Amino acid sequence: MLQEESDLSLVIAQIVQKLKGSSLYAQLERQAWASLQRPEIKLESLKEDIKEYFKISGWEKKLQNAVYSELSVFPSPSHPAAPPEHLKEPLVYMRKAQGSWEKRILKSLNSMCTELSIPLARKRPVGEQKELLNKWNEMGTDEPDLSLFRPVYAPKDFLEVLINLRNPNYENGDSLSFRTHLGLIQVPLKVKDIPELKEFFVELGLTTGQLGIDDSTQVPPELFENEHVRIGQKVLAEQDSAAAQQYIRQGSPTALRAELWALILNISSQPEDILYYEQLKTNVIQHDLLVDSLIYKDVKLTASNDDYYFVFEDYLYQVLLCFSRDTSVLGHFAYNSASPPKSYIRGKLGLEEYAVFYPPNASHLWKTLCWVQKITHGVIPFHGFSMYVAPLCFLYHEPSKLYQIFREMYVRFFFRLHSISSHPSGIVSLCLLFETLLQTYLPQLFYHLREIGAQPLRISFKWMVRAFSGYLATDQLLLLWDRILGYNSLEILAVLAAAVFAFRAVNLMEVTSLAAAEAVLADLSTLKVMPLLQIFLFATVT
Amino acid sequence: MRPELSLLLLPTEHADVMPGTVATVISLSEGEWDFYWCDVSWLRENFDHTYMDEHVRISHFRNHYELTRKNYMVKNLKRFRKQLEREAGKLEAAKCDFFPKTFEMPCEYHLFVEEFRKNPGITWIMKPVARSQGKGIFLFRRLKDIMDWRKGNAGKKLTSLEAQPARSTANPSGSHDARSSDDQKEDIPVENYVAQRYIENPYLIGGRKFDLRVYVLVMSYIPLRAWLYRDGFARFSNTRFTLSSIDDQYVHLTNVAVQKTSPDYHPKKGCKWMLQRFRQYLASKHGPEAVETLFSDMDNIFIRSLQSVQKVIISDKHCFELYGYDILIDQDLKPWLLEVNASPSLTASSQEDYELKTCLLEDTLHVVDMEARLTGREKRVGGFDLMWNDGPVSREEGPPDLSGMGNFVTNTHLGCVNDRKKQLRQLFRSLQGQKKASS
Q1: pTM score, two decimals?
Q2: Is the pLDDT score of B227 beyond 80?
Q3: In Å, how far is A262's CA from the nearest CA of chain B?
Q4: Are A323 and A407 in contact, with CB atoms under 8 Å apart?
Q5: Phi-psi label, residue A471: left if phi above 0, alpha if psi -120 to 50, beta otherwise
Q6: What is the ipTM of this complex?
Q7: B411 FRET partner, CA 20 to 30 A, in A37, B156, B195, B339?
Q8: A307/B240 Cβ within 8 A
Q9: With contact defined as beta carbons under 8 Å apart, do A491 and A200 qualify?
Q10: Would you place residue B168 in the very low, low, confident or very high pLDDT band (cuts 50, 70, 90)?
Q11: Residue B277: its chain A contacts at CB < 8 A?
Q12: Which residue spans traverse the membrane (chain A) (predicted)?
């Protein structure tokens, strides 16, 4: 009991510490001062009166939302003597693996630099800056020569790394048993099984109304849809994050989705947020990064070629170019096993490389170097990265809001899809969950696919890494991402992947090669996500 | 009725849309056909001296150009609007204000200049009346631009002015009985243009301008029976919209035909969105009510435009026509009619497009009903919803609520779910059942 209390007070202290540095704190302070003028605030009962005032004016709700938001990303309690790296990622072998993966990426980036003799970063001449500023809203019309660039890595490269992950402390013997995991991932992480998933995703059950199922044309709207919309509007009126997160587990009505997501992610467009975005934009204008060309290439290859997302090409540049310069994204590294590898970069970048491009201004040089070392670790886009942003363009049209939403989604969810960690929403766990579900509940299919050399994970990996963006129809994708937000977990991606295999099991049993299996699963655009999930979780005889 | 001998003749343009059916074409002897999806040129040359049995169907109305040539459509609409104002007042007439101010050139040149001077600085667009696919169109802001153009065409213009009867003083009721003047309307070798007010604040998605292509099937004009297809698409311009580059044809013209020649064009892109996607996008941005209003305003455009030529078009019972409506939405979510096409393109730019057009043609044939399977009381056939049946058609069942009270919702579902296969199955099964019962 005592332990719990002291844990709780530790958590509270940490959250208070975090919030003290936020703009909300400043706003609350201002509001408190302003409220002194109000007649109902009396000196004798100052504290209670101000608290009451906050409650009535909605500021308490905002504070609640902020706290809730912090709690969502708070790491689980751990031993007080644990070192910070341990908090980020408790398993040593995972930390090591992530470290060496990052090293590889950086090496690849550096060698691309040298090969093409392009600097990692350079300051733009004034003329070029002006030009870019004019073209800011239509960068997609630019057709720079990107033929020499190649994406630093593709999902399948990352999959190879994951396949080779081993826990050095784990010995499962040479003999095969019914416990042997037949899939590609060979690390012993705990994943949920279907009974646990049923409990976790209880709101997706057969007896609960869902958007994506109970709003189809055959179902009269009075049965579920109308009431659900009404509740959604109420939740928005109350501006309650926690309630919104609970509500959205049953799906979000199209008209309310943009606001609901903003509420759950606790994004409100304050002037300082817009200012922050403008600052990033200025950075983009002033400096050109190698990473930019990679971003361009990725957008051109993926989103621009998509039948539906091509329209949003310009927004993608506006978001991604700024994102690659956003050092506050590093804040999420407190929750990620990765850490900026100072040693690697300093060793690689000789000062002389930069003497050519910059005036000999030492302090400026160091600042740039430090900044470069931060951002080159920040986010290095892989092939398909821009697809994280594309569906959001459907909902948000103002660049700074779109940016904020994307950044929050990234630091809460998407980063886990391309870094190595033991977190239950991390990609390793998702892969293992997928394979386990398949092996346990569709053993014949799994065995057959394995025999013909078509390990299921090889096909479903790309879906999960991209959170199914670009594979599902947009409205279905948004319904899926509703649930990611609602359950604050990416496990649903693995469940959906398994459900897709279950759905096409009959066809898959007949194929005789990996290529044929890929062909059966090539087109997911006609799938309806919610029925698939419901059937797999709640209506399959196990 | 000889169902066994139904022959389909399709011009080559359609060959890649319905390859299966073309293969069943048999050689034909003179006049031995029951159904003809014809070319407008064939129509012009042969319609008047072709005898057609009662059951025969042909895919155009004799003088469809009253609706599809921009100058005639404008005239008919203006006339209809005046009539509405006389009969039902200004408010009713204002419902016809979906067409940007248009002047026929060169005969209305002076009226145009007057309007031009009243609104300095706005942009105008010059379109040839009878060409399609974006050819010959240009934008201008200064009178000087058209003065030059006018000089360039001066010789031709005079001839046309002399040759045709004074069109502007034509019979106010609009009836054109004289065959010869009809022919002249079509055969004028010289180009006629219209100058139209350019819509400077189009609705943009992703910074791009787009227009909507909607399909309307008219089975007869007297009485007016029109069907609206649920699917359609939004065609995007490949480049970003800005008024500063009015010379860039590619920016302003959203026809796929023009876009195909733009250097940015990548055929894989297709630059089209299906209407369902467009409708969803708007709903997530503006809410369902605003979208309902927009779509019912579009219904209004279809119906009023058809009503305006109702008395003019020769309503032959053999004729039906599938129109392609081009609609532009502005930033206030007001729809504008750009033009109506009598022969909408049926070539497909992508797989999705191919599916849409094949299903569209299939459903058109179902509505035309050569096999005489329908009862004539259907409100929906496949992807087509009956929009107007000599009066508004309501979504609700039962007799229409003519009192004007209550919630009248038109039976249109543009951009909505199109579960046509299922509907067709159910429809034909029940029709079969009815036939069996009555035999």
Answers
A1: 0.79
A2: yes
A3: 14
A4: yes
A5: alpha
A6: 0.73
A7: B339
A8: no
A9: yes
A10: very low
A11: 308, 474
A12: none
